[in-house]
Amino acid sequence: MKDDKSEKPIQKYEPEQFGPLMKSMNEFFTQRPVKRLLDSIDEFFEKPFPLSTIPIDMYETDTDLVISADLPGVKKEQIDIEYSEKHITITVNHVEELEETNEKKTYYVKKHSFNKASRTVALPYPIRTNQIKASYVNGVLKIHIPKQRKRKIRIDESM
What we know:
With about 160 residues, the protein is α+β, with helices and mostly antiparallel strands. The chain folds into 2 domains: about 15-50, no CATH class; about 50-145, Immunoglobulin-like. The protein is built from 2 helices and 7 strands. It has helices at about 20-30, 30-45; strands at about 55-60, 65-70, 80-85, 85-100, 105-120, 135, 140-145. A 4-stranded antiparallel β-sheet has the order 1-2-7-6, with no helix packed on it. Strands 3-4-5 form a 3-stranded antiparallel β-sheet, with no helix packed on it. A hairpin with a 3-residue loop joins strand 3 and strand 4 (about 85-100). The longest helix has 15 residues, at about 30-45. The model has no long low-confidence stretch (mean pLDDT about 80).
């Protein structure tokens, strides 16, 4: 008994049939506005939160407690340092503006980004707030907090 369903031949597609379509898709994705959009998406996934945390190193010298933070590419004006008796907070506000115009292809790009990162460091002992010093050289922020002089307690035997 023969099957009533008519058999349709399987149609095979050759790569050259898609040539014009592939060419138009390539042209679309390499055009300036779309390419810039795709590049910005790539940049986001390469480095989604560039300043999400501030790496620090804290150590003591004979005279100071030193907090060192690596902040490459940050300008001194973008750094804020706040302190209290038991904490120091380092905040970086990174603002970037880019404006680009191309007369030949008539496009205009304006990009504005704002990133903020903050790190609060708990201090091992209360500090004298009027003697803190900070320096920023070659992308490294160093905060020097003078150690307090230790006071000795005299032991009295008469108690």
